[in-house]
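Bench notes, afternoon.
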Amino acid sequence: MSAPATLQVSCVQMHWATPLEANLRTTLKYIRAAAEAGSRVVLFPEAHLTSYYFPYLVNLDQKAVLDALAQTQKAALEFGVWVIAGTIQKTHDRFLNLAHVISPDGAITHEYAKVHMAGRDEMQYCRGGNKLALFEIDGVPCTLVICRDGRHPELYRIPAMAGAQILFHPSCSSDEIEAVCWKRTSGRAQQPVGPNSKIFHCVANTIGQSPDGLQTSSGMSFIREPNGIPLAEAGYYQEEMITSVLDLARADRGYVLDSLANPPFLKEHWEKMIADVRLRADVKPE
């Protein structure tokens, strides 16, 4: 199919440490809200269905997790929107932190496992994925990273070399209270990628405290155009949805195409990596 000139995207900011049942209700509410706002895509935070609170999620019944994901797929079908959802699921070898790209037909068309672990609990319980994300939404080439992955530009710049115009970035920047305050001051949690790629950057982050009160999350979800200019930004503390229309002609990928061309001795290496990313794009994380 031919790609549209614009794409309306909503990013949902949610609590990171609430139970599966509550997370599912919030997810379904915002899928409806995004559709009613006219959005074609709705992005949720990292692990928004299972939560990112490991003392809780490692004991979840995996059938309940899969059922919540199935209900999310049904909502995507009911409201005719693309949904990017997140779970942490148990596998034969530890857990995987997953993003699921769900089409308006209710089918999972792409899955990506977080590559770079963050925090003691995630490092203890999870292992990293072994591919980069490259997929299409309505004919628009896209990529995604999960939270800490955004600190590693090769994970989105190589897919941008391969054609991706939008980076979807589900995140949960939970940390000790002092660290979160510092993240807000420094902008460390999610730094805009447009200024080193010339692609759109859509971030859905989390808010709220852990049940023990020792951790919080920084909020500040955003949608930024390819020069890094904010189109929409969320606050520090509340669950909310932000929405923007992306003028796709602005995502010309200029900086990554310059990197692909110069210096010339690197071009064949970039091209080999691009080919490998394409080859692995449909590999299911497991």
